[in-house]
Amino acid sequence: MLSSPFVLLAIAALAYKLWQAFYISNDKNSKVSSKLKALERSHETGGALSNMVQADGAGSWPPKATHGAGWPSELLPFHEIYLEMIPLLSSSNPSLDDAVNIERRDQFRALMSKKLNERVDMARVQALVSSIEAGNWSGCSRQAYNGFYCCIGVLRHSYRWAIIPLVKVVQEERIIEFPAQLETTWRHLQRTFGVDSDSGSNTSNVLLNFNQKGERAYKINLEISELVTSTEEAFFRMFYDVEVMAYPMYQKMVAAYISYEQGKKGECLKHMEDINSQLRELLRVFYQNLVESRVAKGVWLSYCQSFQAWGAGRMINGEYVEFDGVSGSHNLCFMVIDAFLGMKSYMNDQNLGRYIPQNQRNLISTFRRNSFFDRLHGDEDKEISDQFGKIIQHLKVFRSAHRARVMPYLAQPAPERMMMTAGKSFNEPGNDDAHLKVLDNMLVSRLKDTIAMASKLLS
Ligand code: HEM
Ligand SMILES: *[C@@H]1O[C@H](CO)[C@@H](O)[C@H](O)[C@H]1NC(C)=O
Ligand SMILES: CC(=O)N[C@H]1CO[C@H](CO)[C@@H](O)[C@@H]1O
């Protein structure tokens, strides 16, 4: 039946149609993107954006990532092992008994090590990660490697904590011996992405955990409760969604830089207006989702934040160096907006180097260097200046809202642990209120810097 000439003809015709459709749509896409690229490349800021998107993002932003699918076979065991370990990681009744917790921790780590030893062919993995670090990507696509980066990041966090909600005895460990499979791979990955922390970052653990359909691959808690599942989902999705909204805004910023420099003030004003409406939509992600009905205070600290913390380190050149965990301040979009205003960075250089990949840092510093905020000329640029004022107003509102909303999340009781936030690893026992005050001061000081930007505009 299949060999009948009619069927073959029909198949050939269909194949031709499909090929044509693909060819044409491809052609159209490549025309649009080459136009965009020409514009982008014509300016330093556009060059930095397109660099980041092409390299780190595998051509998209947020970055493309695949988890297991399309991976070289030598990397697959890592993916499978993480998925097998999740059910053992989290539990609905954290114990307050140190001995029980020590035993649970040791069993978890021993099992993960055993699986890694038995199933990972380190010689092949080593060959692959070193050739990628040397710039040879023929053995693995960028999107597969992005997903792999996330996988090793979450494997390390799960090995570090071993018990979710995290517990005191594990917090007290300051130096962790990681299995070689999670250590050598991580060093290569960190050099390839251009960051140097032992812990994961917002990019590795959160952003690259989503595929292009917006599905999150490596979860933390399975079947603890409906509330934990929905809180985990809503919380992490915010960080992906803001980046989805941010990409067109980055492009408008590039367009604003270009038109301002070319003296096309009318065009620039139009871009500034677009940036403001994009920013308003982007912030809506935060306002609508960081609410009790989506992210529940009673479970957030223990079940979601726990995993992203770090608070451990190692000896480097004879000195103990400690790393923090994942923080909201790692968010690319807020750093880019600050840079567009020419505002000084919230994070210091050391932390930028630890947690923010090289191409993201390059985008931020290029945007900051090119900022025309300080170059506005009085009345002549009044309308553009007003648009800057609106951006600052959005940021002021965001920063006050963020401060008001996040503090109660951090102040939740968690008797199984000592005070610690993901971003800042205070983990000495002591006065919790004093610790919260330190964090609050950081947020207040950033709010003050933002308000100072507004008064700069009026003077
Ligand atoms: C329960 C949820 C959250 C808590 C408890 C929290 C807590 C904090 C804390 C304590 C800081 C200051 C310390 C540090 O730099 O790490 C901070 C900074 C920051 N967070 Fe959050 N955060 C939460 C959610 C978010 C979300 C959803 C976003 C954005 C989508 C966000 C964006 C930021 C930014 C941009 C900073 C840097 C400071 C600034 O630019 O003003 N945070 N967060
Ligand atoms: C690049 O890597 C592939 C596989 O990962 C390898 O087969 C090939 O020989 C490498 N090419 C060069 C030029 O090193
Ligand atoms: C992408 C991203 O920014 N994710 C992290 C940001 O910070 C929060 C708050 O600490 C983390 O929990 C997210 O994982």
From TrEMBL:
<feature type="binding site" description="proximal binding residue">
    <location>
        <position position="402"/>
    </location>
    <ligand>
        <name>heme b</name>
    </ligand>
</feature>
<keyword id="KW-0223">Dioxygenase</keyword>
<dbReference type="GO" id="GO:0046872">
    <property type="term" value="F:metal ion binding"/>
</dbReference>
<keyword id="KW-0349">Heme</keyword>
<keyword id="KW-0408">Iron</keyword>
<comment type="similarity">
    <text>Belongs to the indoleamine 2,3-dioxygenase family.</text>
</comment>
<dbReference type="GO" id="GO:0019441">
    <property type="term" value="P:L-tryptophan catabolic process to kynurenine"/>
</dbReference>
<comment type="function">
    <text>Produces N-formyl-kynurenine through the oxidation of tryptophan.</text>
</comment>
<keyword id="KW-0560">Oxidoreductase</keyword>
<keyword id="KW-0732">Signal</keyword>
<protein>
    <recommendedName>
        <fullName>Indoleamine 2,3-dioxygenase</fullName>
        <ecNumber>1.13.11.52</ecNumber>
    </recommendedName>
</protein>
<dbReference type="InterPro" id="IPR000898">
    <property type="entry name" value="Indolamine_dOase"/>
</dbReference>
<dbReference type="GO" id="GO:0020037">
    <property type="term" value="F:heme binding"/>
</dbReference>
<dbReference type="Pfam" id="PF01231">
    <property type="entry name" value="IDO"/>
</dbReference>
<feature type="signal peptide">
    <location>
        <begin position="1"/>
        <end position="21"/>
    </location>
</feature>
<dbReference type="GO" id="GO:0033754">
    <property type="term" value="F:indoleamine 2,3-dioxygenase activity"/>
</dbReference>
<dbReference type="GO" id="GO:0005737">
    <property type="term" value="C:cytoplasm"/>
</dbReference>
<keyword id="KW-0479">Metal-binding</keyword>
<dbReference type="InterPro" id="IPR037217">
    <property type="entry name" value="Trp/Indoleamine_2_3_dOase-like"/>
</dbReference>
<dbReference type="GO" id="GO:0034354">
    <property type="term" value="P:'de novo' NAD+ biosynthetic process from L-tryptophan"/>
</dbReference>
